[in-house]
Design goal:
globular; Non-ribosomal Peptide Synthetase Peptidyl Carrier Protein, Chain A; 52% helix; 73 residues
Length: 73
């Protein structure tokens, strides 16, 4: 997950991310960055992520919960 995020937030210090603050606020991501992040997650993990679910990937905590619930699907 952090690798996919690092691919769109080049140069960002991902070790200092707050778990409950949206990526957009912490990393100044735009819509294309979020799309590229989701594509990276899919490529790395093989998890299908519906466009309607993109908002569920807004924070580290939310990503972990979402990906855990989708594993094996």
């Amino acid at each position: 997950m952090l690798r996919a995020l690092g691919d769109v937030a080049l140069g960002a210090d991902l070790t200092s991310l707050a778990f409950d603050v949206p990526f957009r606020e912490q990393l100044d991501l735009d819509s294309m960055d979020i799309l590229n992040f989701v594509v990276g997650l899919h490529a790395a993990l093989g998890v299908e992520i519906l466009e309607a679910d993109y908002p569920k990937l807004a924070t580290l905590d939310a990503c972990v919960g979402y990906l855990a619930s989708r594993s094996g699907t």
